[in-house]
Amino acid sequence: MTALLETSGLQKSFGAVVAANDISVAARRGERLGLIGNNGAGKTTFVNLVTGYLKPDAGRVVLDGLDIAGLAPRRVRRHGVSRSFQIPQLFASLTPEENLLIALGIASDDGLSSWQPARSAAMTAGLEDLLARFRLREYRDHSIAALPGGVRKLVDVAMAVTHRPKLLLLDEPTSGVAAEEKFALMDVIMRALEGSDATVLFVEHDMEIVGRYAERVLAFYEGRIIADGTPDAVLGNADVQRYVTGMTP
Amino acid sequence: MNLAAAIFVDGLIDASWLFIVAVGLTLVFGVLNILNFAHGSLYAVGAYTAASAAGWYYGGQIGPPFFGYFVMLGAALLVAVAIGPLLERGVLRLFYRRDEVVLVLVTYALFLILEDATKLIWGVDPYYAYEPYGLLGNVSLFGLSYVGYDFALIALALVTGILLWLGLNRTITGKVILAVIHDRDMSGAMGVNVNRVFVLAFTFGVFLAALGGAFTAPKISVQPGISISVILLSFAVVVIGGLGSVEGAAIAALIVGLARSAAIHLMPWAELFIVYLVMALVLALRPEGLFQRTTLRKI
Amino acid sequence: MAGRLGILAAALAAFAALALLGRVLPNWFVLVATLAFAKGLVALGLVVLMRGGLVSFGQGIFFCAGAYAAGLAMRSLGVDDAVLLLILGGVAALILGLIIAPLLAGYRGIFFATLTLALSMIAYGILDKTYSLGGSDGINLHEPSFLGYHPPTPQAVSYALYALTSLVTVIAAALCRIHFDSLRGLLSLAARDNEIRVEYLGASVRRVSGVNFAIAALLGGVGGALSALSLGHIDPDFTFWTTSGEFVFLAILSGYASVTAVFVSSVIVELVRSFSSQYFPNTWQGALGIFLLLVILFLPQGLGSLVQRRRRSQGESEGELKPAPAPVPAETSQ
Fold first, then answer.
1. How far apart are the first and last CA of chain A?
2. pTM of the entire predicted model
């Protein structure tokens, strides 16, 4: 099966710090990958390199046969790559509904109209669908500032999936969310993605989440990938336990 | 040869004036992140206060003529102490949580208020305080005659600059201020009383503005409207030099002073806008100014 | 917010009302209103920019470009028709905007503000010393005609200009309102809030800014041409920084929610100005400053927010995520 995403020899340094060291990874269509590693290991750098926020010093990022390394985030998005953010990047003065409308509008093939009202018939169907899938109906016209953290995360992720991305990167989707709610949040997200064959990479610190939702795990350490396999295999790996999870048997 | 010398000397004199006048503005921005539109009005208040003080001192022949300089210095100090804390605590502090552009608008409102306050206190007729100007006689250089006072201004600029640099880099208070410039939240977390630093820095900025005004008063007729050209020139110098950088203000003052001097001697029609041209050029090539203290918001 | 038809209908009704009002009110009011609306157009353009997160301290440059285009066309090309002149003004300003936009591209915040200020002052310096364009004295304009109609009396001229300005105003206001209500309008607000997210969603903040800038330039130029005709005079002060400051003041005062507020504010300010500069020449600017401070402090959204409904902010969720139905978190995986 050909890979959807294939990075080879990705390299990125910030001065003396090597944040990405020869990262070569392949992900299949529809695969669910968890990225783990402690702070500074290079997970977010990897996400930034793939989504165009950073330009690699060397290496390629091939998506469906096309090298997207170094392209601006805007272009990368057009090729079907989407991401959510560790700290939700929302439009704070607008309502969740309006946030989603903008995402939908930008993603739509007709582009944005200057003439049609924002809530035109064309957008409504997509909007209602998103609101339902992400359980945001009751919050649709609240102010962003008043939203609980988990709901903000949902809006953030909902905006990222508006145009049926091929590749979705979730940066710490459950960080900042109360422990009892993490699973609920991930359930909503994963269920919302049901039916799409998007490849999902999610960065996580919570090993339970990783164990439950990922079919494959990549462990980062000091800019390199030190383990790649099923959750059980990776979490049981001695190096991973030493450098990442700290769970020595 | 004489022309080049004339341009250079005039440029140096102008640069000294520009530095004294602009350095307060850049300092206030560095510490408080406020581009103070009212800076020119504070300069004007300094000029008026000094003119009144000089009028009182020399008119009443209170003491020896040279002591008048200290009277003017005192006038600048008075302005700073009277207005600085009042403006910072009473007005600016109310808007700290807002966007930096909103703060510029607030200072614009302050400028409008101060302009009229000045007119109310001192009226619209010009004030003159020429006595201090003639005290230092004339100097002959390169076959041209210069007023000694202007050279004293160069000395004042140098002294101010050096003292500022030493103060910021070699004293503890200075280092605290530098820390706040770099990272206000971190400094606060380290136990720095950031609020006090703000008042101090702003008051000092007012002092520098008033100082510029006070020592310029003997050279000009002090009247409504002098603040406007000062604001624009200070802005240009500060933006060219890099917002928040004292060294930058010095270099920029030199560049602008020489440019203006060259324009006056060679292309008088360009005098008004050569400064903005230089500013636009610098911003186009090096958007954060010559010495970067603040990060540029670029997409 | 009424639909598009409702907005256009309201605009027509407003025009009818204004036209009637102009017949009834004294001539000095007509003159004040004309100038207020013309300046309001410039401020409206600035509001368009500000909704996208950019504050220009140099809108005077477009105001001036429109005014000078009109004035020079009248003096040197013999163009008399007010409609043609306002179109020329708008187009001239738009072209200028397209030329300087690349210089400004990518700058935001303080740097955008000071750069626009610098550019407008460069224009001032050039115009002030260019005697073929009138220098600091400027140029006087004579009375315009209106699509062939030559008003017989000065009163008639002011009324005709007032009617034309009102028409342009309601059309511009209606179009802006429709634009604000559209997705493109919403996108400006989004760009103001979070440029990075906009880029990540696939849109170009630079393009949003560019379009807003062009609209602001066009409106500035039209406002400038109309002002020139109203005042009968143009001079470099049109691009002086205090003029630009007035537009910023107007935009802040009205806020970016209500288009009507821009023109109401403008009329109020013009009225206050004409009275105050006559009776309180030394205090009205200070009063304006105090007023501005109060508006910024207590009405951060400007006067327009008094008219708009407050945004529904009654989300009292206390921090619990309650998706319905909530699955019980599994204790073990598979």
1. 36
2. 0.85
